[in-house]
Structures are given as C-alpha cells and as structure tokens.
Write a structure and sequence with these properties.
The protein is 26% helix and 24% strand. The chain is an alpha/beta fold. It folds into 2 domains: 227 residues, Rossmann fold (3-Layer(aba) Sandwich), CATH 3.40.50.300; 240 residues, Rossmann fold (3-Layer(aba) Sandwich). The protein is globular and about 70 Å long.
Length: 490
C-alpha cells in the first residue's frame, strides 16, 4: 500500500478557543476531496496548516511527495481572497483607489504578475494561453491588479494554480464571484487535474462541485467527519424570525421618485471600452437584479452610482433627482446609499470591533471616528439584536468567521436607513443557512418598499422579491425585463 501524500495525526490548534482538536486525516495521491460545513468550523485554518502558512499547531503533519511524479513537489493553497501588494510591497490601499487614474499606477499588471510567477516556478507561457482564453481573461493582461473585481481576482488565482499544477492543490471557495461559464470551465479543469494525478481539496459551501469529487468531509467539534454527500453537511442553527427594527419599517414611499437615471453612459480605460451607451432608470420601490459575466462592467457601473468613479462627471448621470456634478458632494450621494461589496470588505478596517463597524455606516467611513447620538446608539442596539450580533459587539471584526463579518457589514449598510441598497455579491463566504437568512432579510426589506440593486451569479442564492433584471454583456445592456416574464429556477 502506497504512503498517503498527506498524513495528519492528533492535530490541535486554537486561537482564543480550540478550533481543531485531535483531528486525523489521510489523503492519498490523486484523490479529490470536498471539505464543507459550517462557517467558522476551522476549514481555512486546516488548509493553512497543511500548506505551511500556519505552523504553531500541535500534533503531526507529514507531506510525502511522489518523487517519480513530474508534477511540482508543492502544496499550493489558493485563499478565498487574493492579497496583492504595490511595487514597494505595501498593501495599504484604499477603496476608491482602483478608479483613480492619478494614483493607482503602482501595482503590477496582470501580465507582470503572471510573468513573475512563471519565472519563480519555471513555467511555460504557451500552456497558459488556453487557460486565459477559456476563462475569458486574455484581454486583462495590461490591467493592474488593483483594477480587478473580486471575480477577476479569483480567476487570476485559479489561472496560476491550474498553470502550476502542483502535486497538492487546496482551493478555498473556488466558485466565489465566478460567472456560469467560468464555473463550467473550472469544473472541467478540476476533472482534468485529477486525471493528471493532482491531489485536490476543495473548501466549498456551494451546491456546485466537479464530478471528480470522491470524498465529502466536514469539521465538527474540531474533528474531521466523513459524509456521504454535501446534503449531509451540518446545517447552521435555524434563526428565529424577527421583525425588522422599527426604524427600518414602513419604507414605502408615498410618491414615486427617480433614484437613478443613466443616459448614454460610456466608460473606457485607455483603449479598453468598459461601458458603452448604457441607458438605465431605477425608481423608488424597485428591486433590481444586476448580472453579467466577469468583466462585463458591473463593478464599474456600481462605482458610478456610488459616487466613487471620477468619470461620472463626464457622463449624463442623475442620482436622486440631481445631475452628477451640479454642486453635490460625494458624501451627499453616499448618505442616500447603503453598499456592501467584496472590495469594500477587503479595504475595511478589520481591527474595528463589530459595534464600531456597524456604527461607521452612519458616517460612511471605514471605521468609527465620531461619537454617536442617543438615537444612533438606540438604532445600533436594535440592529445588533436583529442580526444576533449582541454577543459579538466588542469583538474585532477580523476574529469573526467570514459569514458573520458579512452580516456585520450588511448591518452597517442598513443602519442609516438608506434610500437605495446596493448589494454586490453580498453572500460570498456565507454558508447556506446564513445565505438563506440574509436573503430573507432582503425580502423583508423589499416588502417594506426598500429600493435595491442586487448582484449575484447563483440563481439559487437570490432573494425571492426581486422585481426587475438588468444584464450587462461586453459593457452593453442585453436584457432588461421584469421577473414575471423570465423563466428563472429558484
């Protein structure tokens, strides 16, 4: 019998409390595993230990590479988020920087990042070309890392992993931010890796997974537990339904109001056309689904609405009845909008505690720098209770599981009762129960007349009460219709 490529015996790890306790796991070369289960159970921690990122554990970890294999003798861990640096090695970026042509030119381009990786790992660029084409990424070579959306960053990480083809590959949330076509290609790529005897571990909360998965496991009470299928993974604690906080109720507008009006909107970066002659109106009481493949212009479109994109002044944009650039400040716009996005999450102050994180929504800041009024303190307590975050109020955001971090950021968007909610891939990192809970909250808000724009790639993970749909394709509007005329499986 051959020696397992990964052997874990009596593994223990803890932060402020035990995470992994006497965990045992053996993985043979060429196997494909899916590691699922609850948010915060220790999946990412285990992956970082196997890859060597975390070393302060107790127990035994042995990696036995196949000396006869032509595959690189490496354990590659692809994280949920891609942490990139500027040319000086600094990661101190700010949220609007990706749109600022004056100051953003200090990060590597995609081509430079790939060239550096190729040199480091002695890789052939000819092999990469087919992956670039299959992922629809061939036109991104000259874009800087800071310009990429969350889905595009995920693609870049996956491209490097598929290109390297190490003996052991661990991918955290492989489908995060990917469009339907990219997910289909990725599953085929995973099946091909298994045929080439790559050992694959997918940390995955999604219903989608490749046919090559052989084993399903989760971490329960610190130990590894085998399951027959993802349907047998532990479910999150069922949340007791609660009424919306009083200040979020009765949001129906007595008078129809035009919130957004875009006329012939075109945005380009150099020779690259991102948006081309976009026409769009959003009125109060409407709930829009915004979709499109990675790179179709969704993030750029949202940045125009949120006041972050400088080219907004060169276009015919009316926000809340006022033409952009007619005397309003960016803070006048942000006051009326509550937004959550993967990019905002990246740049948020993770050392802020949960209470500060949520309260910062009153001031549209990345942490809390002002004292709250009595009414604001009351709203904060109401929303902490509503989201079951009262016990986490004084915990630093970075100490919470990713799913709870997202709930805190949703609470931040709601606390000022904005006229318009913009929810860009809001459920990334959440387990299925958290996603259902999150979308139920959105449906409750929609029932109260809340206007919103929701970006989501998975049709099965959308709120039910969305009234309109806009699809971008190559920077132009391809579909614009009401849901009752669409055949969408829920």
């Amino acid at each position: 019998m051959s020696t397992p490529i990964i052997q874990i015996s009596n593994l223990n790890f803890q932060y402020s409390k035990p995470i992994l306790e006497d965990l045992n796991w053996e993985i043979s070369s060429g196997e494909c595993w899916m590691l699922g289960g609850l948010s915060g159970s220790g999946k990412t921690t285990l992956a970082k230990i196997i890859s060597g990122e975390l070393k302060n554990f107790e127990g035994k970890l042995k990696v036995s590479f196949d000396e006869k294999s032509k595959l690189p003798k490496k354990v590659l861990y692809v994280s949920n988020w891609f942490q990139f640096s500027n040319l000086e090695g600094d990661r101190n970026f700010y949220y609007q920087q990706r749109y600022n042509q004056q100051v953003k030119n200090d990060t590597l381009t995609v081509f430079a990042e790939l060239s550096h990786f190729a040199k480091e790992e002695n890789l052939d660029f000819g092999i990469l070309e087919s992956y670039l084409e299959s992922f629809g990424f061939e036109n991104f070579k000259n874009q800087q890392l800071i310009e990429l959306s969350s889905g595009e960053h995920k693609k870049l990480q996956l491209l490097k992993a598929l290109w390297l083809k190490p003996q052991v590959l661990i991918i955290d949330q492989p489908y995060t931010g990917l469009d339907v076509k990219s997910r289909k290609f990725l599953n085929q790529a995973f099946d091909d890796l298994i045929k080439d005897n790559v050992t694959l571990v997918l940390i995955n909360n999604d219903d989608e997974y490749p046919e090559s998965v052989q084993y399903f496991v989760e971490i329960e009470n610190g130990k590894l537990v085998h399951r027959k299928s993802p349907k047998d993974f532990s479910k999150g604690e069922e949340r007791t339904p609660k009424s919306l906080p009083f200040f979020l109720q009765n949001n129906n507008e007595s008078q129809r109001e035009n919130l957004i009006k875009l006329e012939n909107i075109s945005i380009s970066y150099g020779e690259k056309q991102v948006l081309n002659n976009i026409e769009w109106e959003v009125n109060s009481g409407e709930q829009w689904l915004l979709q499109g493949h990675n790179g179709s212009g969704k993030s750029t479109l949202l940045s125009l609405l949120n006041g972050d994109h400088p080219q907004a002044y060169a276009n015919e944009i009316h926000l809340f009845g006022q033409k952009r650039g007619s005397g309003e400040s960016i803070w006048d716009i942000k006051e009326k909008i509550g937004m959550i996005s993967p990019e905002l999450h990246w740049y948020f102050d993770m050392n802020a505690n949960v209470g500060q994180t949520i309260a910062s929504g009153f001031f549209d800041s990345m942490s809390l720098y002002q004292k709250l009024s009595f009414d604001q303190q009351q709203q904060l307590e109401q929303i902490l209770y509503f989201f079951d975050l009262k016990d986490d109020k004084n915990k630093k955001l970075k100490t919470l599981p990713l799913g709870k971090q997202r709930l805190a950021l949703l609470a931040r968007t709601l606390i000022k009762k904005p006229k318009l909610l913009i929810l860009d891939e809001p459920c990334q990192g959440m387990d299925n129960e958290q996603t259902q809970y999150f979308n139920q909250v959105i449906d409750d808000l929609a029932s109260q007349g809340q206007s919103l724009i929701y970006v989501g790639h998975f049709e099965s993970q959308l709120p039910k009460k969305l009234s309109h749909k806009l699809v971008l394709e190559n920077g132009t509007t391809q579909i614009k219709s009401r849901f009752e005329f669409l055949n969408i499986e829920r």
